[in-house]
Fold:
Amino acid sequence: MNHEIIKTLQANFEKISKTENGITYWLAHDIQPLLEYTKWDNFETVIKKAQIACKASGQEVQSHFLDVGKMVEIGANVTRQIQDVMLTRYACYLIAQNGDPKKEAIAFAQSYFAIQTRKQEILEERIHLAD
Structure:
């Protein structure tokens, strides 16, 4: 994968993150196009697989995948509420792991989260050694 594409995808992923009360999260509808899913139904299937993986790993699904409503504009000054999912970084990781690896963005996301996980492991090892 081209280095410039990697930088662009990483910047776009971080740009759409939101922070509230010190917690960083992403909205599924914002991540969907970044991961090259054009249909919500297909992306929702990936989210459900990721939720199953989350539960199987012993994590509380609601702590990482929170159903929320989101107002979207559907026409000239007309809005309606749609269902969305608030995702933690771990949830995004699980979505990447359960996505279609033939999609370049999914392949990137899988590598990105593997690298981020390794960085965290190294940081924790250093903190442990400093104790």
Q: What stands out?
A: The longest helix spans residues 104-130. The chain is about 60% helix and 20% strand. The first strand starts at residue 18 and ends at 20. Helices lie at 3-15, 28-34, 40-56, 61-64, 89-98, 104-130.
